[in-house]
């Protein structure tokens, strides 16, 4: 099957406008005749459902949480990018476009990224109109800060809870449509299969998580906005419920899965502290604006810290290695996430880690310099040109508290350490996934009528996502892309009429789901679902994690195959199908993670280069930076499902062509 990305012709700055001008429309009087299903109600799903409801379509929205307000988008802390140039520091649509392509190590689709940069400004206007309380400067203008991979300030934020505030804005818009009856909300429902009729997406099979009842729902189009798959690693910054099931079910029915090996390791997470830990905690990348990352220069100092014999505050300035500032002077602590993560791993692997655990994985994020600088500025602003050290520290702490107070509070609650007084301990952890379901320019998968939005698709970030771009993509897809492109598809559906859920395709899909549920409940195993999930995560982190090599990836593929076989033989799922059964939910999701994990390893094995978050140890330059192979691997790897054995998956390639950006080696020095 040939991949048609449907990228419009013309200059990059005109593609989206010209494309919109020639898309088919659905007249307002015809929209109530059309049903749309939205799976997932995070930023992408909630904004899409609200927008389509406002337009007059009949929308059914599904989430496995008890409320859309519990979607994982709420956990995003640092901010959302937009090319407004409010700081007058040289930003532009083109520069946001360029930074995103470069940050993704030249493995993103050019046209999609430019469209994202184009609509970014509209997102901020939309959210301000909704009442999202973005931070503002003294004069009332919206404030901005910097994030990794940029040299401008383009990130809009609401303290350390930007995702929460944006989600509440989208939720308010969604709630209005629910109140008007144009969106029907299905909380505590999980999509367990997609239904195709004559090759087109025509509905889903969902399980009511409270009663266990399987339900059939029909529609003229289905939107999957169910987030990423970072929980394949078990330990990640994702909520425990985050999973790949919706995306994987459509993959098994014909939607290609693209670039599964592109996983983002976030450099600013609280280190692992025990074997019984269930998830990891992210400290916002915004903290890298003000914090300086370092380890001791002397191994003996690092060893003393790990042994509890030395405190970081006792390490003299000249004995600290600010390794990001040393290695990347142009960007310093604000290099992209993949670069910062690998640099931390390199220092810890060399014996300079500061966290006293079995792996000695940890570095410092230190705010003492910023506290002093901002304290001095604040004193001068108050007319005190000769402040004491104590006055400087007090004013500096107050400034930091206003910017990051809730983040510091969260860190102290988790670690019992005061980050105003002693540096934070951080280490990279699995965070975001750049891979996902393959979509064309219209965000439609290889299943006609099945669209994919937000983190669930692959399209906008290449091999590494820049900080503060996830919220941007989710809202761009939901508010400003899908309402146009899905209408173009639905224009041919106004005469279709209501789709019956009694069709044989619905019956067969429901029976398949029921059989998979009964298989787990009737299994006489002896091990819990988490037992297998943790083992899968161990394989993934060690062999398909921050650094990969041919031997490890080959071993991972075989080990996951063995683990999957053992999982089906020996997993124990208590309870029944017709009740609230969290263990059954987990079993169904981990079954999908098993297949996905194997495909991730295969994709990483075949991509014999290093780019962004995909770092093959065999392919690095003399300074340990990524070594791309643009001649052989400048493509999107889109995989076609051929059964649970990933070895049989078929690779399709979408060649990446850069007409408006010159490809170069990434350089942040």
Automatic annotation (TrEMBL):
Alphabetical keyword list: Cell membrane, Electron transport, FAD, Flavoprotein, Membrane, Oxidoreductase, Transport
Q: What are the required cofactors?
A: FAD
Q: Which residues form a coiled coil?
A: none
InterPro entries from the entry? FAD-dep_OxRdtase_2_FAD-bd, FAD/NAD-bd_sf, Fum_R/Succ_DH_flav-like_C_sf, Fum_Rdtase/Succ_DH_flav-like_C, SdhA/FrdA/AprA, Succ_DH/Fum_Rdt_flav_su, Succ_DH/fumarate_Rdtase_cat_sf
In which domain of life is the source organism classified? Bacteria
Cite the GO molecular-function annotations of the record.
Answer: electron transfer activity; flavin adenine dinucleotide binding; succinate dehydrogenase (quinone) activity
| SUPFAM superfamilies tied to this protein | FAD/NAD(P)-binding domain (SSF51905), Succinate dehydrogenase/fumarate reductase flavoprotein C-terminal domain (SSF46977), Succinate dehydrogenase/fumarate reductase flavoprotein, catalytic domain (SSF56425)
Q: Which residues form the active site?
A: 337 (proton acceptor)
- Using the record's annotation, list all stretches that form the Fumarate reductase/succinate dehydrogenase flavoprotein-like C-terminal domain: 533-668
BP term (GO), one: anaerobic respiration
Q: Name one Pfam family in it.
A: Succ_DH_flav_C
Is Secreted tagged as a keyword? no
Give its E.C. classification number.
Answer: 1.3.5.1
Family, similarity comment: Belongs to the FAD-dependent oxidoreductase 2 family. FRD/SDH subfamily.
Its name, as the record gives it, is succinate dehydrogenase
Lineage start: Bacteria, Pseudomonadati, Bacteroidota, Flavobacteriia, Flavobacteriales
**Gene field:** sdhA
């Amino acid at each position: 099957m040939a991949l048609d990305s449907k990228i419009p012709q013309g200059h990059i700055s005109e593609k989206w406008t010209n494309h919109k001008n020639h898309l088919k429309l659905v007249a307002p009087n015809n929209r109530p005749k059309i049903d749309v299903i939205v799976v997932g109600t995070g930023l992408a799903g909630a904004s899409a459902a609200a927008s389509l409801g406002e337009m007059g379509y009949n929308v059914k929205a599904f989430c496995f949480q008890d409320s859309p307000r519990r979607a994982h988008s709420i956990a995003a802390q640092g901010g959302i990018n937009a090319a407004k140039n409010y700081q007058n520091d040289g930003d532009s649509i083109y520069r946001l476009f360029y930074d995103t392509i470069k940050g993704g190590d030249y493995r993103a689709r050019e046209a999609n990224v430019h469209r994202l940069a184009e609509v970014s400004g509209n997102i901020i206007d939309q959210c301000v109109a909704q009442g999202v309380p973005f931070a503002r400067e003294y004069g009332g203008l919206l404030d901005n800060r910097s994030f990794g991979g940029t040299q401008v300030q383009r990130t809009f934020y609401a303290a350390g809870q930007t995702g929460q505030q944006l989600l509440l804005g989208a939720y308010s818009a969604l709630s209005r449509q629910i109140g008007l009856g144009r969106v029907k909300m299905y909380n505590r429902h999980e999509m367990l299969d997609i239904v195709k009729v004559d090759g087109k997406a025509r509905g889903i099979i969902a399980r009511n998580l409270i009663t266990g009842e399987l339900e059939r729902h029909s529609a003229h189009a289905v939107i999957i906005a169910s987030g990423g798959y970072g929980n394949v690693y078990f330990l990640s910054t994702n909520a425990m419920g985050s999973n790949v099931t919706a995306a994987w079910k459509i993959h098994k029915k014909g939607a290609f899965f693209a670039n599964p090996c592109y996983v983002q390791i976030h450099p600013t997470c609280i280190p692992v502290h025990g074997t019984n830990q269930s998830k990891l905690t992210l400290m916002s990348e915004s903290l890298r604006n003000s914090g300086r990352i370092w380890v001791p220069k002397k191994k003996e100092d690092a060893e003393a810290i790990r042994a509890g014999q030395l405190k970081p505050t006792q390490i003299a300035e000249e004995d600290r290695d600010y390794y990001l500032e040393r290695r990347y002077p142009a960007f310093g602590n604000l290099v992209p996430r993949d670069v910062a993560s690998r640099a931390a791993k390199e220092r810890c692997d060399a014996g300079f880690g500061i966290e006293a655990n079995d792996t000695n994985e940890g570095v410092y994020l230190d705010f003492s310099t910023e506290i002093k600088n901002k304290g001095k500025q604040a004193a001068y602003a108050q007319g005190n040109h000769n402040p004491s050290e104590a006055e400087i520290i007090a004013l500096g702490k107050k400034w930091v508290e206003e910017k990051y107070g809730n983040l510091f509070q969260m860190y102290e609650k988790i670690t019992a350490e005061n980050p105003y007084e002693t540096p934070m301990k951080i280490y990279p952890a699995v965070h975001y996934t750049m891979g996902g379901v393959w979509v064309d320019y219209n965000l439609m998968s290889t299943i006609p009528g099945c669209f994919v939005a937000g983190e669930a698709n692959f399209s906008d970030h290449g091999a590494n996502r820049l900080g503060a771009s996830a919220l941007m993509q989710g809202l761009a897809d939901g508010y400003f892309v899908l309402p146009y492109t899905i209408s173009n598809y639905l224009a041919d559906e106004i005469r279709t009429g209501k789709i019956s859920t009694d069709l044989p395709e619905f019956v067969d899909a429901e029976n398949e789901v029921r059989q998979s549920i009964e298989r787990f409940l009737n299994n006489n195993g002896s091990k819990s679902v988490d037992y297998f999930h943790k083992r899968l995560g161990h394989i993934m982190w060690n062999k398909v994690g921050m650094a990969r090599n041919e031997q490890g990836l080959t071993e991972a593929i075989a080990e996951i195959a063995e683990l999957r076989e053992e999982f089906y033989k020996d997993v124990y799922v208590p309870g029944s199908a017709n009740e609230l059964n969290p263990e059954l939910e987990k079993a169904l999701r981990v079954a999908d993670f098993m297949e996905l994990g194997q495909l991730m390893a295969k994709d990483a094995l075949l991509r014999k280069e290093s780019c962004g978050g995909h770092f093959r140890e065999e392919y690095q330059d003399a300074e340990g930076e990524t070594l791309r192979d643009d001649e052989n691997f400048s493509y999107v790897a889109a995989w076609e499902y051929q059964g649970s054995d990933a070895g049989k998956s078929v690779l399709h390639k979408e060649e990446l062509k850069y007409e408006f950006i010159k490809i170069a080696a990434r350089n942040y020095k």
